[in-house]
Design a protein that fits this description.
The structure holds two protein chains of two kinds.
Chain A (H helix, E strand, L loop, with lengths): L5 H38 L4 H22 L3 H27 L20 H16 L1
Helix pairs in contact in A: 1-2, 1-4, 2-3, 3-4
Chain B lengths: L2 H23 L6 H23 L11 H24 L3 H26 L4
Helix pairs in contact in B: 1-2, 1-4, 2-3, 2-4, 3-4
Classes of the chains: A mainly alpha, B mainly alpha.
């Protein structure tokens, strides 16, 4: 590392951090998908809105994970769109679940700003957008 | 599930997770130590799977949703394997961080499985 030029070091570092980011995205995609499959199979009629949102969130996390891995400007744009959607989703649903809790009789991934997932759904899109800006 | 075994499993997974995250952030590539810690987490998950399959035959039934329990357990079993292959292919310090993140995720999932088995629906 010490022998590398500064520019090269910072470039590989950003790529490296990106790998860790992708891994966390992958874990969240898996968690959201597992949860959503269970909710839809076992109890969809209890809270259709919250569970539909969970399914949408799961799909978005999967697409975002793929878009972060795949190269090229098109996938960069897909990553930008899906990650922005996540940020808007978690802020919107988080706020709605605070003020209109009856809409979310059962929690979704994004309820209370992703508290059930240690606020990772709130922090991750911010880190993701920062990383996308750095690698543009 | 067996309560004391589950406790051991969560403690081991948290310890392995912190170890890998700290070593990864200090710049270590995946080593025998960090890969071994992840392998131990995986081994305990496989034992947990066997326990979960065998337990109902001994009158130890899940109180909560068996479907939800197995979705968590199967996902958890897959994670360290995926992370391990990743660490073999890409030998950078970030792979060590990834191993740690996976172990911590496993700890959360095992805790959640514990709640489903012992608390949910009680």
């Amino acid at each position: 590392m010490a022998d590398d030029t500064l520019a090269l070091a910072s470039k590989t570092r950003s790529r490296g951090i990106g790998r860790a980011l992708i891994a966390v995205y992958g874990i969240l995609a898996l968690a959201a998908t597992g949860r959503s499959v269970y909710e839809i199979i076992a109890k969809f009629d209890q809270a259709p809105l919250a569970y539909t949102l969970s399914a949408v969130a799961a799909v978005v996390y999967i697409v975002a994970t793929v878009a972060l891995i795949a190269p090229g400007p098109l996938w960069h744009r897909v990553a930008l769109i899906t990650i922005s959607f996540e940020l808007v989703g978690v802020v919107t649903v988080g706020t709605l679940s605070l003020f209109l809790p009856e809409l979310f009789a059962k929690a979704s991934v994004w309820s209370w700003y992703g508290m059930g997932y240690l606020f990772i759904p709130l922090v991750l899109p911010v880190l993701g957008l920062l990383w996308l800006r750095r690698t543009k | 599930m067996i309560e004391w075994f589950t406790t051991v499993q969560v403690v081991v997974a948290v310890a392995a997770g912190l170890l890998c995250v700290v070593l990864g952030l200090t710049g270590r590539k995946p080593s025998d130590l960090t890969m071994g810690a992840t392998a131990l987490v995986e081994l305990l998950l496989v034992v947990q799977l066997i326990v979960a399959i065998a337990a109902p035959a001994f009158g130890n039934e899940a109180r909560g949703s068996v479907l939800e329990f197995y979705i968590y357990l199967i996902s958890a079993v897959l994670l360290p394997v995926a992370g391990g292959f990743w660490a073999l292919i890409e030998r950078t310090r970030w792979s060590t961080v990834v191993l740690g993140a996976i172990c911590l995720a496993v700890a959360v999932m095992v805790y959640r499985m514990n709640v489903i088995w012992f608390v949910q629906g009680a």
